[in-house]
Amino acid sequence: MKNKIQYLLLLPLLCIACVDQIEIPINPEDPVIVVDGIFTNLEETQLIKISESIALESQVPIPVSGALIYVEDQDGNRISFTEQEEGNYTAEARAEAGNQYRLVGTLPDGREITTELQETPESFPLKDVRIVDTLVTITDESGDSRRIHAIDFYASGAVNSLEIDKYLRFSHETVYQIREDFCSPFVAAKTCYVYNDVLAEDINLVRIEPSNAPVGYNKLVHRRRIDRTMGELFGLDLRLYSYNKKEFDYWENLKLVFDQNGNITDNIPARIEGNVRASDGSEIQGQFAVVGKTGFIKLVANADFPTIALPVCGIPGFRPNPRPAACCSCLVLKGATLVRPEFWP
Amino acid sequence: MYKLLPQISSINSKLILFLLLFVMATGQSFGQTDVGKRVSISFENKRLIQVLYDLSVEHEIQFFFEPDDLPYYPLTGSFDKKPIYDIIKDLTEGTSLIVIPYDKKEGLFVLNRPKANAAYLDNLITKWEDGTYDYPFDKNAKELSYTFGKTSTTKKQAKLRLKLFDQNTNEAIIGAVISNTDLSINGLSGPSGNINLELPVGQYDLTVSYIGYQSTLLHIDLYDDGRIKLPMNFQSFLFQEIEVLANSSEQQLSEASVGREIINLKSMEAIPQILGEIDIIKSLETLPGVTSAGELSIGFNVRGGKIDESLVLFNDGIIFNPTHIVGFISAFNADALDNATLYKAYMDPEFGGRGSAVLDLKSDATDVKSWKGKGGLGTSMMKIYVEGPISKKLDFHASGRGSFNDYLLKLVANPELRRSNANFYDFNSGFAFQINDQHKLVLNTYYSNDLFEFNDEFGFKWSNQHLGLQWKSSWSEKLFSSLSLNYGAYDTDNFTKGIPEAASFKTGLFYYKIIGSVNRKIGADGFIKTGVEVIDFNNRSDRLEPSPTSTITENSIQRKAGLNVSPFLTFQQKISRRISFETGLRFSNYFSNGPGKIFSYSEGPKTEDSIIAEEELNGQDGSGNYHILEPRVSVNYNFMDNWSLKGSYTKMSQNMFQLGTTNTTLPSDIWIFTDRHIKPLIVNQFALGLFTKYKKYSLGVDLFSKNSRQLYELQGFSEVVLNEHLETELIEAEGRSYGLEVLLKKETGKWKGNIAYTFSRSLRKTIDANKSLNQGTEFPSDFDIPHQLNILASYQALPVISFNFAYIFKSGRPTTVPSSTIIQDGFVVPLYSFRNQERIPYYSRLDFSITLDLRKVKQTGLRNSFTLGFYNLTGRNNANNVFFRRSAKGNIVPFQFAVVGSVIPNLSWNFVF
Question: Which residue has the higher pLDDT, A17 or B335?
Fold first, then answer.
């Protein structure tokens, strides 16, 4: 009886809020040019991507080919970027400390694009990445929760003192290894490297205020579910970008529209404004940012954490059934390539 | 035919046998007594005791009963040539009363069964015969005669002054009506119970009447000035408390004000509510022109205005967040309210400070004759209200409510809910001290407190406080004054937990308010009022307080506030039988005050980068003063007896605004004040209304048009938390709203209800030279609801059982949706279109409740009512907002968030004592 009364009392509370996927009419707009460029202070291949905005249901960028792209310093010296792949413009260069740089270019349709000059920020240390084996509760898009084993990657770094505000963003690439089985005497088993197989979860930003005392960060930068993809070797290529404030604010705004989850504290979304301007005043989306960069490679083998994870294709005596198609042809996996990462052991 | 309750199935056979024998022993049978006489009778809203009295007088038949045994809910019925005995049987069917004929006198016993035995019957008869028991009223009016002066007088005119008071308590009777038969003479008694008439000398028959009191017929020979002190008899059985229809059709026809809605607090009981609790704020949404963002809305929108454009007053105190649980229910105990008036268009110049509306709520501790109370217990909250006379001069009332959701949340299986809290309490009290006949002091207090926390992750706390002292005076029959001193505060805390950046963000403000007025009657139908309202607003600092392990540092800023001094003048006059008008002027003077910072900017858009100077303001900012005249006028024209045409013009200004960056207005949204950069909002509203009444129906049609200037929209990705220069986030805009409101009512009968339809638009356009939204084109405001339909229906199946229905439909609110996506460093990001170009799905909700109201079954003791309700009976998921996020595949898909996703039943018990 007591239980029955409790149930009746609870009835109103069981009828909690609901999140449902719906159809809503969307008026597609004409595509706009999107600039996605980072110019770092490291001597490496610098990459600027030019593409078009795409439909809401799509994820495949539409590259824009045939643009003329330069990075120009405060004295007018230009670094020319060449189109290596469609829409990807590269140069071997670096941003020098103390200099200012901006993007200058001409689109295939003749419009000229440019940004304001940006200082070259100093890098901030990325000293260590440690892993923690943990149990987490995740909620999927329909609101259902479940608990899973995961590896949390924590990045840390510090300085003895800091004179100015630091605006930092983490970015990363992941890669795991999969060795094919012996499936046919006529085909040699290959080893594939699968890049970025899961969606980027979070826009990870850190703001550090000036201090006379040691100051730094210790931040969760990546969470990976422990499954067969972690059964051989998993790599996290972590980058830490140090931004100027204006470019950092762009990423803060991006995070607001990226992190919508129906919470009553969700911010009202708005149209992002990038820092690239077109000569005719038309809209250009995206950002070109001059950043200080540091990086860290973290390789994780199954032996590095207590939870057992078998490789994708298993081990003798413990083969998955049915055998995944990737075990005979690993290139079927999204993001798979035979190109071995430079940092791979 | 009336079945009060299901027929009682078990009958005490021995008792009935005894009574039948008793009857037979008298040698009479039904058909031979007058109780078998066939009669025709019709009555509407009369109590059983009145029906018995009418029958006793008209057909010379006696009824024997205990007066306290009879129920006092109103009955309506019509019987055609039916035996009296059968009529009384029908009227008492389903109750515990039995009807037995008594043959020695032509009469009937109407008995409460458990008490019926021979000795009791004899005793009962004796009490009626010796006058111990009698009908507690006189159907006919008391008649009195007076003569003043002599017929040989040369005077043409004479003054007649009456003072009306309760015979038992000596308290003044306010609002009694004196009139002659053709209504060429009429007057109302004022605060001291006085009526003053100036009449040509002669003879008059005047009736003095007041609800609940025996009427008095005065035969007056008036040849010289005369005074009459008239005691009036309170007749409790005549006091039909539930049928006092506020904002009645007659009142609507005659009053000048357009857009004034006097809320019928009693009728709110018929509106099914989400927690089974009568809710003044939610009930407002059944009126045309009033809407909200949904269940999670800490206020209401009136005629296209924002939530902060509606001023909520409780006993002159300003209430900044009139809701609990982030908008689920209002923060006022409806049992404690005596008056509730919503001004949507014209309002007395005494009210001001907001652009759209004023909700004026009052609780009154005065004129309480005895200790009594009410209370209730629902599935998640409880309440109590008591009132009573502490002494002959001091009356008191107090009410309190509290929730007990926490206990229930701990029992839920969902771990996130188990780690959540949603509790609140509110309390208010009033002391009224009658110094003498002319002066009264009233002390009011109010306090509300809320905690809303989800899954140990984030939450809100907020509180409202008010302390007020009123001095009301009646200096003469024509001159009245009022002085009110008030202190109030509103504090909020928005906190996060369990993350590295865990912290509390606290804001708050407090004010001192004085409002004084003098009111002088002009003739019989007019008055002139003048006064001044002074409000000194002060902001507490906005503080970011990190938790002990937080990675962020403590920070605070101080915002400016201001002083508002607004003298006002109101003039109301009835020009003729058909035309009345009210006009006035409010002169709003605002002075921006520190402490706080002032920033100066270079030419061009105001941004953080264009700041060229910064100074601390500790006193007044001469560049932040604004003086605005607010003329107002409202005219009413009655024609064809049952029609009235009204028109009004109202100008309002507003110096304080609520800012937030979320889809829903939250308790943590900050209040900011006008200063040198942020100008006051100015709203001009024109309204036209047509009203008519036909039998039990009334119909009102209103048109309105508002234009707003010097309003501000937040630009995209604004930061308001700890932002000392909010002017850099604001874009100046102008707005316009217009609409048509239709309200059809049926106020009496078994079926009662109303249908309200509103068509309205609320549009915005930025006019800032340097920044814009939507490229400067017009766009719908956040609360642009083109269509809204409310249907309320209540069916009184039995005097104690009613079925209540409420249906609401409204267009979806505007929302901003993405039109494409871009890719930045591997992130697929939605690219949003212009603001408010699409709408969330429409809102449709049906509520139902059934009430068993036994509070009117008897007059004294503990009396109960029970309500079983179903909120959102169809279980529809009404979207509170629409948002976009990535699916598992990575593409952007739309989702909707519905606060209430299924039927919510509620059960509540209410009692009076």
Answer: B335
The mean pLDDT value for A173-182 works out to 89
The answer to whether residue B772 neighbours chain A at the CB level (below 8 Å) is no
Confirm whether B4 is domain-assigned.
no
Cβ-based burial of B640 (10 A; exposed 0-12, middle 13-18, buried ≥19) = exposed
DSSP B350: T
Burial of A341 (0-12, 13-18, 19+ CB in 10 A): middle
In chain A, what residues touch B713 (CB-CB under 8 Å)?
A: none
The pLDDT tens digits of the residues spanning B161-220 come to 999 988 766 777 877 888 887 666 777 787 678 888 888 999 999 988 876 677 788 999
Q: Which positions ≥6 away from B607 have C-beta within 8 Å? A: B601, B728
Question: Which is higher by pLDDT, A69 or B894?
Answer: A69
B234 close to B166: Cβ distance less than 8 angstroms: yes
Q: Does B611 reside within a domain?
A: yes
Q: Is the dihedral of CA A174, A179, A183, A185 positive or negative?
A: positive
pLDDT tens sequence across B528-558 = 999 999 999 999 999 999 999 887 889 999 9
Q: Which of A225, A245, A247 is nearest to A305 (CA)?
A: A225
Contacts of B17 (CB under 8 A, 6+ apart): none
**Cβ B833–A29 below 8 Å, yes or no?**
yes
Buried b (16+ CB within 10 A) or exposed e, B548-578: eebbeeebebbbbbbbbbbebbbbbbbeeee
Q: Do both B273 and B224 map to the same domain?
A: no
Q: What is the pLDDT of residue B113?
A: 62
**Residue B105 belongs to domain spanning:** 13-129
Flag whether residue A80 sits within 8 Å of chain B, measured between CB atoms: no
Query: Beta-carbon neighbour count of residue B209 at 10 Å?
Result: 15
Q: Are B295 and B880 in contact (CB under 8 A)?
A: yes
Domain termination residue (choose one: B206, B238, B270)? B238
Whether residue B807 sits in one domain with residue B887: yes
Contact between B63 and B102 under an 8 Å Cβ cutoff? The reply is no
Same domain, B102 and B199: no
- Asked if B832 lies within 8 A of A270 by C-beta distance, the reply is yes
ipTM: 0.90
Chain A CB within 8 Å of residue B789 CB: no
d(CA A177, CA A230): 8
Q: Do A54 and B822 make contact, defined as CB atoms within 8 angstroms? A: yes
Contact B412 A10 (CB under 8 A): yes
- Per the structure, how many domains does chain B have? 3
Q: Which residues of chain B have pLDDT under 50?
A: 1-33, 237-247
**CATH code where residue B850 lies:** 2.40.170.20
Could you say which architecture CATH assigns to the domain A30-119? Sandwich (2.60)
Q: Determine, yes or no, domain membership for B213.
A: yes
Report the alpha-carbon distance of residue B347 to residue B334 in Å, rounded: 23
pLDDT exceeds 90 at position A48: yes
Distance CA A35, CA A105 (A): 11
* Structure confidence at residue A19 as a pLDDT band (50, 70, 90): confident
Helix (H, G, I), strand (E, B) or coil at A172: strand
Please name the residues between 650 and 709 in chain B that touch chain A, using a CB distance below 8 Å.
661-664, 666
Note whether B35 and B164 are same-domain residues: no
In a domain, B253, yes or no: no
Distance between CA atoms of residues B285 and B357, nearest Å: 13
Residue A5 is predicted with a pLDDT of 40
Over residues B482-535, the pLDDT tens digits come to 999 999 999 999 999 888 789 999 999 999 999 999 999 887 778 899 999 999
Same domain, B776 and B727: yes
Looking at the fold, whether B431 and B365 belong to one and the same domain comes out as yes
Of A14, A23, A28, nearest to B819 by CB-CB distance is: A28
Looking up residue B165, the CATH number of its domain turns out to be 2.60.40.1120
